Structure formats: structure tokens, C-alpha cells
Amino acid sequence: LGQRRAVNASVSIPQGPERLEEAGNLENLRAAARKESGEAFRGGYPFQDSDVHKWLEAAAWQLGDDSTATDPGLPDRVQEIVGLLRGAQDDAGYLNSYFMLAKPDQPRFTELVWGHELYTAGHLIQAAVAHHRATGRGELLDIAVKFADLIDASFGPEGSGKPIDRIDGHPEIETALAELYRETGERRYLDLAGYFVDAHGRGTLGSDTNHHMRLGYFQDHAPVREAKAVTGHSVRQLYLLAGATDVATETGDAELRAAVERLWAEMAARQTYLTGGVGAHHSDEAFGHPYELPNERAYCETCAAIASVQWSWRMALLTGDTRYSDLLERTLLNGVLCGVSLGGDRYLYDNPLHVRDGFADQEGAGGSHGEGDDGGGRRVGWFRCACCPPNVMRLLASLPSYVASTDADGLQLHQYAEGTVAGGGLALEVATRYPWEGRIALTVREASAGERTLSLRIPHWAREWTADVNGQAGAGIDGARSASPEGRGRETGGRDGGWLRITREWAAGDEVVLDLAMAPRLTEADPRVDAARGCAAIERGPLVYCVEAGDQPELGDGYGLDDLVLDVAAGLAAEWRPKLLDGVCVVTATARVRGRSGNAGWWPYGDVDAASGEVGEAVTLTAVPYYAWANRGVGAMRVWIPRV
Amino acid sequence: LGQRRAVNASVSIPQGPERLEEAGNLENLRAAARKESGEAFRGGYPFQDSDVHKWLEAAAWQLGDDSTATDPGLPDRVQEIVGLLRGAQDDAGYLNSYFMLAKPDQPRFTELVWGHELYTAGHLIQAAVAHHRATGRGELLDIAVKFADLIDASFGPEGSGKPIDRIDGHPEIETALAELYRETGERRYLDLAGYFVDAHGRGTLGSDTNHHMRLGYFQDHAPVREAKAVTGHSVRQLYLLAGATDVATETGDAELRAAVERLWAEMAARQTYLTGGVGAHHSDEAFGHPYELPNERAYCETCAAIASVQWSWRMALLTGDTRYSDLLERTLLNGVLCGVSLGGDRYLYDNPLHVRDGFADQEGAGGSHGEGDDGGGRRVGWFRCACCPPNVMRLLASLPSYVASTDADGLQLHQYAEGTVAGGGLALEVATRYPWEGRIALTVREASAGERTLSLRIPHWAREWTADVNGQAGAGIDGARSASPEGRGRETGGRDGGWLRITREWAAGDEVVLDLAMAPRLTEADPRVDAARGCAAIERGPLVYCVEAGDQPELGDGYGLDDLVLDVAAGLAAEWRPKLLDGVCVVTATARVRGRSGNAGWWPYGDVDAASGEVGEAVTLTAVPYYAWANRGVGAMRVWIPRV
């Protein structure tokens, strides 16, 4: 993860302004700043500014991050682009180059269905909060506050005296305003966030929407408090629920908390891929039906996985339950990281779990977003609808915020990565090769006086683990997963479990070692998941694996990945390959090559079990982490493999 | 089948004019006939006239059919509507109320991408051919010929002197012109059909198409002769290929024949549901990727199944191979008949193979076609886009044309249904309760002098059969499926098989009895079909069965169809139920109720085989023919059932 963050800092983020210049985003801001009429708007979408804001947010987090090397030119680029935004903002506080250039005479906030005005404003606010929080500088926050005040003066419930009682067709403003409240302490912003959360589902967008798009697409189908399942456009849904969770956290609203807990549980249990990816449908970029999780046609937009990470983290903070960080880790390491190439300069928009033999590099329905086609695992440098690349950048740059939480008792460590963590009266140094190795060594560098609880998340995938303090097993360890007196654990399940808690008076130099057993394992899906029925997947630690066609030399000519049947009775083996894919642990498995069908061939259905026993010779399969797929050209791939 | 055709004749067809009146289609024609400016066009689609034409075609076939009772008012309704068309046609021969009313000043044939001008004309021509062929009357044919001559004068290749060298965005004109050639003997129409077939795939529609729609949607992605697989909008694709097959048949063009044989084989082997349904994607109503055949989200538009039947029949005539009639039978009895209610007055637009527990009657993506929503098995009376209902009517009314073919040697019987068949020097009476029973008794009523070959299709699903002539087994029988001397057969496979040929000098009173063993059977899918992997389906004879939730009283409270595991080792039993669903043979099977998962519940993936052995008590499942589903309210249903 550190490696991927370093690439983000050294390649992805520094390249951002070039891409934004090429795509016209920065020129739009300059044109808006000139405030001359007749300037053309560049780019295909009214939310082009949001790409700039998301890049700025990424750059801001990066500027505040000591753990990875920041590009030396970055501070100047940030200042320059903040300057562009300041120049473009009008006296009323409004700032959106699309509406300023393309629709100068149209009243503000009237094109709410497709205009993305509040969505774009939300990303500006997020960037400003990041910039202020990470660098202490106030220039961008001033711009955002001015815009937020304009929005606050414009939107509100009937009877509030504010003129507009409607929502934006793309959520984002909700969580942005909650963050702005946290950064400024200004309660108005939280109240406005709460208003927007509850203004969804009243159909206020209804009459403007065309009949092909359901209200669910715009998240205007049902109030959040009443919704039974995640639905509609997945990124819109998850941004909204992240905002709802922020509001529930800050206000203590129990009803809203119950709603987001219910919806998250529905998403996790019925609508989430093994990779953490969400949003099954290419059509409308939407959640599918429950358990509708096709592998080849998985949409799994990179942005939806990012939104899931953001929401899960907010749920973890709201509830303290480890399951949220369990899913966060899985989604981050599999469903998000696959979205950017190892080199940091090429992206995937949709992230299928299966590319069929002979059908790599086909047109995908996601192709309309890209330079050329982005289906089938062909990574591209930027997209016409470029939401994903800067979203990956901002998430990777902000990851230190997702590692730990604190409370009055001490520090909770949610994620494991090399680095330092401080808070809750403790400062720790973390040394680990996780997720390649399961050993996580924590050294206390500073500790406040008195008893403090250090809580370590035992990941839900961990079947066995040991823990010791200063070389002594079990000392002061209390784990909901029934740590034995020796500090050795085995999963016993239970929804409240997951934290290993160590309470003691800490001193600098204390060392805690958590060792998670990392044996590769075979996973199956709930049988309601049609697309994975009769299959197994390979996992190791938090990583989901896949097989890529190019890694299977034992497969004879004319046979492909889709001819394989995984032998689940044969063992798995893990091996570190330092030169492969920037260093990965591969997992090898045994498969049989399926005999070709003996039927007449024109019809793919036949008598049950007629072909049984036709399974052929054994071959060794080599699996690589899913996040690293499609980094060596296009080709067949699969996560779920039919099994015997 | 006879029963369904009788309902078509007594309910569906007579109701057609009422529906067309309510929807405004007939008023559009009256308004066009008035030739006054400022008349409004009614209905949402430029191809509204085609619903009228398809109904007329249905009514015309019905008028020529002695085997079912025709509504006494039908001849007058047909004459009245033919009169409306005559009144609306302009002096140049043009006839399309949408363009005449809504775009009177726009030059003809300029809105080819979405206008459906030639598509609508094609349906007019089909109706006219049917009317002339079935009734001998020429009024409608005169109208169609006048319009066809206008099209022939307008469209042609570069250098032909005709002004327009482009195609329509929706094929249909091709097969219509081929049929018009057959009816009139006018070679120009066949040449024009051939021109249109080969004009596809040159991208002539390209610049008008919006970027969300691929050229494949409009069948302009590749020349038919070069295409490797069926793709794009399924109805458009299949209408085009039906036309290409007509042209190949009439011209003897070997290259075109090879192309349609290849494309049909691709469709059958990789893109067809067990029911014969095709077109997996709701999005763009398109074919999916090979083997992408999701059950719950199957689109399987009724019109696509109808188009498949029409194409397969043309392939059967072109090649003489039984596989085409095998698929035709399967598609007709399962994928088409499900599209109309047993009562003949309510329809399905999309035909899924699975409705999940708790998710019947949900919004489906097909909902935009209907009155309310038509996903999840809720049948409706008519659709805003009403292509399917009159298409069902015309197919059912024209079915006698799909039963038999003739050649110099004699008569080939492709489909089995009660009735009379004549041609190839033989006239037969067919007595059978097929598909409920396998016994088919043929009595020769008339026979020409000399040897004649009577060829009987042994359906590809038939595992055992016997045949005798005048009570004598094996007399003169020659079957590619290795009929034994006793006239008993067992399938041996082979692509040239399928015909049982009996050559002799026939005399009136000769009787042939073919008896196909009708034991219910369990079927599995090619393992590449993700959605059916690990499942079995129940079939009996040509019928695909499904389980509906309401038929399973043994299933305990709180358990649903999706909790069942079919015990494939237990037997199946068939039972005739005269009062159920207008009389059906049900099949009973044994299933186990799956134990509820022991995992923590928030995550649907777990260790492989961890839940094995949790399969619970046995219950008897009752399956009904798929064509009859959704006739008793909405509820869960499945064709493919997970198996042990």
C-alpha cells in the first residue's frame, strides 16, 4: 500500500494538472475568470470543475503527508490552481465554470437534475477542508466558505425563507457540508447537510427527469430514513449515505443511524462483490438486484468502490464496529486499487471480475466514458468523464486518515501499514510487510500517563492469530474473539467481535506483535449469487486473487481459463515473487482441464451429469492479486473459478 | 398449441382494433387521410403504424385459416382498416402517419436512424403479402406494391441512379421485400432486399447515432457476410438475418448462406436461453456476450423470440437441417408462448427465467415500455411500445406455415400438431395430444402415384422413440438416427441426423404412428453459462418447466424457492392436471431445503464447503410449463434450480 501511495504521490498527482490542462478544465476556469462573454466551455460534462477540485483535494492531502515523498513542484501548482478558482469566483460567491460560461444568463441552481451544481460545489468544499486541515492555509477555505454561504442562503425547507427547497441530482454536498462544519465549527453547515439528506426521496426532481431514468438514479426515490436497500446510481447512493452517516454522527440522530446501519448491512450482504466492488449494472451505473453480481458484466466503477470506502469509514467511526473496517480494507485493497495501474498513470473505469477467453479487449458498455474503450481490462490514461482518476488520487493521498480512531480510552488501529500513528494518548510506530506477511509489530514511542487501551482490529478473514506484548503472550489482552490465555486466537464469529483490546499503562519502547496467519484459502459465495455458484475464489489475507491467462503456461494450446475446473481438494501454496508486478505474493492451485463436450455441439444444454467424469489432466494455476490484473496487456482473467 | 391458437383467434385478434383505437393508431391513419395540416400524431413512437400492420397481418392469416374459428366480425374490421390505409396513402405511394402528420415538410427517408420508415413499410408489405396469400384479395397488396415501388425508386447503391444509398435503423424491409418478390414474382423486390442486406455494416448511419448507442444497435456495425456473432439489438439483428436468409434462399448465394449458418450456430450455442429466448440485456435490448445468459435479469423480449422463430424457419427451408426446427419448436413453445397470457389478453414484454423470492412485482428495466411496470412477471394489457402483442398474434395466426415443407421427393413434417397437412404429393391428417403425449398418428388422406418420402423430424430432445407404418414396425423406415430394424430409435447424435424418412408408395388410409418417449428429464447447461452453473432444469418433451412459489405447499413458512436444492438423484414424475392452467402436465421433483448459513451474516462469502452437509429435509416440488407462468398473479419463479 505504501508503494502504491508513493506512486500516487510521484506519478499520478503530479500528472494531474497536465491531464486537466489537456482536457480543458483549467482553461475553463481561466475563461470564467476573464468574465468576458462568448467564451466556450470545454469538455462534455457540466461537472468538469469537479475534476479540478478532486485533484486539489488529493494534492492537499499529499502536501500534509510526511510519509511519502511529495513532488517538489506540487505546492506551486496548488497555489496556482487555487488562484484560478479565486479568480473565477464571482462576487456572490458562485463558482462553476460550466454555468458561468455556457449558461451565463440562466439563474443559478435551476438545472438541478443534471447540472451537478451542488455536487461540484461539494467537491470544492472537500478540497478546501483538505487544504486547510493538511496545510493550515486558508485561501481555498475562504473560497469554499463564501460559496457555501451562498448555497446556505439559497436552499432550505419550505418556510425557512430560503428560496429553493430541492436537491441536486448528484449527492456530494451533504458530506462536504458536514466536513465544513467539522473544520469551521459553523453549525449552519451541519444543519444544511441534514436538510439535504432528508430532502431526498420527496420527488422534487421528478418532473424534470426523463422516463428512461428512474428517480432512484438521482436518489430521489425514497427518503433515506425509509429506504430498504441501496439502489440506483451507485456513486450517487453511496455519497448520499456517507453524508447521512456524517449527519447521524454529529447530531446523534438515532433514526438516521438505524437507517444507515440497515442500508450498509443490505449492501454488504447482497450487493457487494468479493472484491468490495459495488454497482453491478453498466446500465445507469446502478446497483443490481440483491445477489445480482455478474462477474463478466460487473460494472464496479472505481468511484463506487471509493465511495464505499468513504462510507464504511464513517460507519466505523459512528459505530465502532470492526465489520466496517473489514469491508473498507477489502474494498480498498481489491476494488479500488485495481482502478489504477501499478505505474500510476493508467486507469480502469469499470472493474469486471471475469474477462472471457477470446473476449478480452472487446467493446464494453463503459466505453463511452473513455478514450477508446475501457471494457475488458484495457487501461487508459484519462476519461472523457474523468471522475475516477482524481478520485483514486484523493483517496490514496488521504489514506492516513483511515487508519486509526481514538476515544477517551485510547487508540483503535483499523488498518495495518508501515508508518506512525498517534492519538488517544499513544504514539505508535508500525512495522509490517502486511498484506504480504501477517506480522505487525507496534512500538510505542510516546504514551500518556495512566491506563490506555490499544485496540487492534482482527480482520474478519483471519482464522488464526497470535499476539504478545513485550514478548509475553496474552499479557493484558482481551479479545472479543476469545483470545486464549496465551494470546492465541481462533475466530469464533459473532457480530460484536473483531477487536483485540490491550489495556495497560504504556511506556515508550513497549512492543506489541500481532501475527495473523496468512495461509491462502478458498472462498465460496452464498448460493443466491448466481454468477459464483459452483465456483471458488482464491484469497490470502485481505487480498482477493485472480488468474490471468498469461500466467498459465501449463494450459495447452486451444484451452483457456474457461476450460478450467479448480480442484478444491488439492492444496494452495503461496510464493513471494519480488520481480513480478512490482512484487507480489502469488498463490498456486491445481486445476483440471475440462474435457470438450461430447454433445452435438449446436445446443449448449444437455442431460444432467452426462459429461461428468470428463475432467482431464491436472495443471498448476498461478493466481495474482486482483488489484494487479490488467497490468501486462489485455487477456482473459477470472476471480471465480468453477470447482470440483 | 391449438388451444392457444384458438384463444388468439377468439380473444387476442378481435381485441386488437380496440387496443389500436385506444392507443390512437387508427386515429393517426384517419388524420393522415384527411390530409389537413395541424393534425396531432398520437403515441410515443414514429413506428405506431407498424402495430396496425402487424395486427392486419395477424388478421389476414387468421382469415385464411380453416383450423380455428375466426371471429365473425373480423373480415369487416380488416376491410375497414385496409380502407384507412388506402385513404392515408399519398399519390406517390408514401404511407406513414407519423411523418405525414408530425413532419409533413421533411423530405421522406431522411430520418433513417430512428425514424423506422422502412421498418414500418416492411410490416405493411408483410401484411399485404399475408392478406393476398391467405384471402386472395388484392386491395392491400396494391397499396404495398405502390409503396414498395416508391422505396425501390428511392434506394439503391451508388451509381444506380437512385438517390439514397443508406439503410433504415431497424431492419424488416429486407424480409418483407423478399416475401413481396415471392408473392408477385417481381425480381426488383428481391434485388432491393439483397441490396439492403448488404448495405448494413458500412456505417452509413454512423454520424447520426448518438454516442450511447453503438452501431451494433442499428445493425450497422459489420457487413452480414463478415459478422462473427449475433450482436446488438436482438430484434433488429434477427429481422435482418431472416431477410439475409430469404435472399440466400432465393438467389442461391453461397457466401451469404455460409454467413447465416455461422451466425445462427453462434446464436444457438452461445446466446440462447433454454427457453429459446434471446437478447440477454435490458440495456439496448441487446444480445449479451457469449454465454452471458442471466436468469433474473434476462431480457428475452417476446419479439426477439418471435424473430428467432421466423429466422429459424427460413434456415430450415434453406438447409433442410432439423436443428433449425428443433430450436424453432423450443422457442415457440417456451420463449414465445410465455409472452401472452392463457386468456390471450395480457402480455409480457421481457421474459425472465427467475423471479427471486421477495422481488416479484419489482420495477423492471422493461417498465418503460408498459402501462405501469412489466418486470417481474406482471402481465399487462398493452404497451406504450406495443410491438409484442400484435407480433404474437401474427405468429400464432401464421403457424400453419411453419409446420411442413415439401420438395420433389415428398413432404417433411417439422412440427407436430393436430390438423391437416398437404404438399409434396401427400395429404395427411395429424392426430396427437403432443406436446402432452408423444404419440403422433398420421393418416394419409390423399397420395400421388409413385414413391414419395415422408420425413418426420425426430426432435433433438427425444431420447427414445418408435415408429411404425400400418402397424408394422420399421417398414420402409430410414432414419439418420439409426432406426433399428424394429423402427425403434435411440439418439446417436451427429449434425446431419434428425429426420426419420419413410419412402414408399402411399395410399389413402395408410397410417404412420410415431411415438416419442416423453419421460421428464433434468437438463444442465454448458459450464460457461455462469448463471446456470451448478443448477438443473426440468424439461419434458419440448417443454421447459419452471417452479412457481404458489405451487409449493410443502415449503415451510419463511422459506422460498431460492432456499431449494434439487435432488437430481431422486426421480421425476409427470401428471396430467386437466384443471390447472387450462390443462397442463405437471412434473414433480424432490428438493432439499437449504440450511441457513451459520456465518456471521453480514458478508455473503465464506470458506469453501463450510456449509456442506447443512442441506435439510426433502420436499416435493411441483413444476409447471414455463409458457404458463405468471398466469396466477405475481410471485417467485425459477427455471434453473441449484442442485445436489
Structure overview:
With 644 residues, chain A is α+β, with helices and mostly antiparallel strands. The first copy, chain A, has four domains: 1-105 and 117-158 and 170-190, no CATH class; 200-397, no CATH class; 402-432 and 438-516, Immunoglobulin-like (Sandwich); 521-642, no CATH class. Chain A contains 14 helices and 23 strands. The first copy, chain A, has helices spanning 2-22, 25-34, 48-63, 74-88, 97-102, 117-135, 139-154, 173-184, 187-199, 234-251, 254-270, 302-319, 322-336, 388-397; strands at residues 354-355, 404-407, 410-413, 419-423, 426-432, 439-447, 451-457, 464-469, 472-473, 477-479, 488-490, 499-505, 511-516, 521-525, 535-540, 543-548, 564-566, 573-577, 584-594, 605-607, 615-625, 637-638, 641-642. In chain A, strands 1, 14, 15, 16, 17, 18, 19, 21, 22 and 23 form a ten-stranded antiparallel sheet that branches. In chain A, strands 4, 5, 6, 8, 9, 11 and 13 form a seven-stranded antiparallel sheet that branches. In chain A, α1 (2-22) packs antiparallel against α3, α2 (25-34) packs across α4 and α3 packs parallel to α6 (117-135). The longest helix of chain A is centred in the first third of the chain and has 21 residues, at 2-22. Chain A is globular. Mean pLDDT of chain A is 89; it is low at 363-374, 480-486 and 490-496. Chains A and B meet through α11, α13, β14, β15 and β20 of A and α11, α13, β14, β15 and β20 of B. β20 of chain A pairs antiparallel with β14 (521-525) of chain B.
